[in-house]
Each structure stands twice: as C-alpha cells, then as structure tokens.
Amino acid sequence: MHIELSKDKRYYSIGEVAKAFNVNASLIRFWDSEFDILKPKKNAKGNRMFTPEDITNLQLIYHLVKERGFTLDGAKTHLKEGQKKTLDKFEIIRKLETIKTQLTEIKNEL
C-alpha cells in the first residue's frame, strides 16, 4: 500500500483515499470515527475531505491494523503512547521501501 501525495493537491475525497488503500469507503469512515488523529474537513455537502496529514495518519493506522495485526484498541493505545516514535519508524520504513523499489528498478535496467 502506497499513496502518492500530490504537491498541488490539498484535499482528497474519501473515494480517492479508499481506492488508494484498496479498502471500502465505509472502513475509512469507521477509522475516522475511531481515531482522534484523523481530522478530515467536511465540504458543504458533508463529504469528508482528507488532508495530506490525514493521509499520513491513515497510512500509519493501516500499517498498524492491517500489516501488523493490531486490534483497534491496541492501535489507539500504541498511537497515544508513542505517536512520535511510531511515526518516525513508519516514515523510515516507507523511505526504505521507496529506496528498495528504486534500486530494484535500476537493477532491472542493467
């Protein structure tokens, strides 16, 4: 799971977010109601509009729940107790994955 954040785009619709994470929009709505770190804006119609910061937080939630197998309560506790530490580790993992992908592409071109 990887979502490319556009430097020009300030908000992402719930449909875009759900598609990027390959999950149902209902799961994104559920996580929004469960996790305080998510703070999407709502447009005039009441639709959630996610900021790049929300996307980063969703990536972290996705990582904890879907990839590491945390329960929702476990993920909430983990985020509250060590959010900065967890976010730093998560960012390092994502950067290393990007480097690995780039190196693999270079290797394949040789």
Quick one: biggest sheet? 3 strands, antiparallel
Please tell me how large the radius of gyration is.
15 Å
Distance between the amino and carboxyl termini? 27 Å
- Average pLDDT reading: 87
Pfam families: MerR_1
Protein name: Transcriptional regulator
GO molecular function: DNA binding; DNA-binding transcription factor activity
Domain HTH merR-type: 11-81
Briefly summarize what is shown.
With 110 residues, this protein is mainly alpha-helical.
Describe the structure.
The protein is mainly alpha-helical and 110 residues long. It has a domain at 10-80: Multidrug-efflux Transporter Regulator, Chain: A, Domain 2 (Orthogonal Bundle), CATH 1.10.1660. Helices cover 65% and strands 6% of the residues. It contains four helices and three strands. The chain has a three-stranded antiparallel β-sheet. The longest helix has 38 residues, at 72-109. The two termini are 27 Å apart. The mean pLDDT is 87.
